[in-house]
């Protein structure tokens, strides 16, 4: 299997499959990013538009659940945007996680980006929910597997309230995660690398190592603040943020 075949295989996966690393044991992280880039190329060839990036595995809750303590990056396209009120499409085994979402006002290029310079490039911050849907059975994967699978991405919804980042303390911004009327988990922005701007800086610096930058207008999902919860048919998952409003997903 080569990079192009792996990208096509993962893009076409509609039910659980074995981790890529089972048939490609020496798959490394750099090759996995090449697979991710090739999958983006194939998505664009079929008409999708790049709208930003997501970070994954930026909080302890997520790292512990997945057994991987290295954050990852993945691409976001317009086809992944779930407008408010639209039910989540039928997926393999979706999980939902609350995230803080930046919209960039300026280009942000590493290396050497700090949390402070990163935050200065942000136009607005929103609350959001990401729906992940690993193509791999039982969400069992290595870091290269997850990178090749575009960070388990499926779709995401951005909440109703966007504010300039200088007007909120994002380390204290809380998210309450509700499933069918019960609050099942809570976290603040500090769960994400100490401050979500640290995750943004990490994204800019990691992209710089690949000769890329974060572009104006891009969305940046900074990573699940809490562990993700299964999104079961008929269930309702909501995230309530302290200053960034609430949003609800249904299936
Ligand atoms: C990997 C993707 C992680 C996040 O926000 O941490 C992610 C996974 O958990 O399947 O999107
Ligand atoms: Mg996520």
From TrEMBL:
Origin superkingdom: Bacteria
Ranges for domain Fumarylacetoacetase-like C-terminal: 85-248
UniProtKB keywords: Lyase
TM ranges: none
UniProt-recorded name of the protein: 4-oxalocrotonate decarboxylase
UniProt source species: Amycolatopsis bullii
């Amino acid at each position: 299997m080569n990079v192009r075949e792996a990208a096509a295989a993962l893009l076409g996966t509609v039910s659980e499959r074995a981790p890529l690393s089972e048939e490609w044991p020496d798959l490394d992280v750099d090759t996995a990013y090449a697979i991710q880039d090739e999958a983006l190329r194939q998505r664009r060839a079929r008409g999708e538009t790049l709208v930003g990036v997501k970070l994954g595995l930026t909080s302890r809750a997520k790292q512990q659940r997945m057994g991987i303590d290295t954050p990852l990056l993945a691409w976001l396209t317009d086809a992944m945007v779930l407008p408010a009120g639209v039910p989540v499409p039928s997926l393999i085994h979706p999980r939902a996680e609350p995230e803080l979402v930046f919209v960039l006002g300026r280009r942000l290029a590493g290396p050497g980006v700090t949390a402070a310079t990163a935050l200065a490039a942000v136009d607005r911050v929103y609350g959001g929910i990401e729906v992940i849907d690993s193509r791999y059975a039982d969400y069992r994967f290595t870091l290269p597997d997850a990178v090749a699978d575009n960070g388990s991405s499926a779709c995401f919804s951005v909440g109703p309230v966007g504010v300039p980042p200088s007007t909120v303390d994002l380390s204290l911004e809380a998210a309450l995660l509700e499933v069918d009327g019960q609050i099942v988990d809570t976290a603040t922005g500090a769960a994400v690398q100490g401050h979500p701007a640290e995750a943004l800086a990490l994204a800019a610096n990691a992209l710089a190592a690949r000769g890329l930058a974060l572009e104006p207008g891009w969305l940046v999902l900074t990573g699940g603040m809490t562990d993700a919860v299964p999104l079961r048919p008929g269930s309702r998952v909501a995230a309530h943020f302290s200053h960034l409003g609430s949003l609800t997903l249904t299936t």
